[in-house]
Amino acid sequence: MTTTNKSFSHAATILPVRNMDTALHFYCSKLGFDLSFGWNSPIDYAVLKRDGVSIHLSLRQEKTRAFQQHTNIYIFVYEVHQLHQEFERNGVTTLSEPQLHEYGMLDFELSDPDGHILSFGRHEG
């Protein structure tokens, strides 16, 4: 199906978090995102940005863990190895080292304090 009228503008990835302070510290101090918007006081909804990527965090009421069987967000980056080293310097434990996969992506994964799996990579084709 092809459309001639462009109706999509952009999308937001919204990750539920159990503790907003913990999540904000992780994303801002460890991963280098900036808080660009916070709703309410104390904050229960936040928009974080780094370069052209936005991640929204929403405080959730239930205490269950995130679904941990697959990536929750894949962030395309230019310098995979440098970013991995930056995160390690910031004390982030990654789930994998950067590696080239048969599907042509060089990437690595990490888990945030709520168990969301974030992948960072670029196409190597």
Can you give a write-up of this model?
By secondary structure, this protein is an alpha/beta fold. 17% of the residues lie in helices and 35% in strands. It contains two helices and eight strands. The chain has helices spanning 20-30, 80-89; strands at residues 13-17, 34-39, 45-50, 53-59, 73-76, 99-100, 105-111, 117-123. It has a four-stranded mixed β-sheet with strand order 1-4-3-2, with helices on one face. The chain has a four-stranded mixed β-sheet with strand order 5-8-7-6, with helices on one face. β2 and β3 (45-50) form a beta hairpin. The longest helix has 11 residues, at 20-30. The mean pLDDT is 88.
Write the layout of secondary structure elements.
Elements: E1 13-17, H1 20-30, E2 34-39, E3 45-50, E4 53-59, E5 73-76, H2 80-89, E6 99-100, E7 105-111, E8 117-123
Parallel strand pairs: 1-4, 5-8
Antiparallel strand pairs: 2-3, 3-4, 6-7, 7-8
